[in-house]
Design brief:
The N and C termini lie far apart (31 Å). The model has no long low-confidence stretch (mean pLDDT 75). The chain has a 3-stranded antiparallel sheet, with no helix packed on it. The chain has 71 residues and is an all-beta fold. Helix content is 0%, strand content 21%. A hairpin with a 2-residue loop joins strand 1 and strand 2.
Amino acid sequence: LPILYKNGSVHKYSLSLPGLSGASWRATTSIIVNAVATDYFEFAVYQDSGVSLNVNGGATETTFSTTYLGA
């Protein structure tokens, strides 16, 4: 379950995916958030499948991007 935090509080739960044993999957989401210059964002992933799962790291595997849409 990907979760977006804004200023330390949960802002949006993205989606929920079933546990996949031995398989790789990719989660993608897009949302528009009103923000000001002092806001900060964090992204976390929660899973409760009952087994340990890995998150692939690195620039090509884990990304978070933003776009300023104007005032």
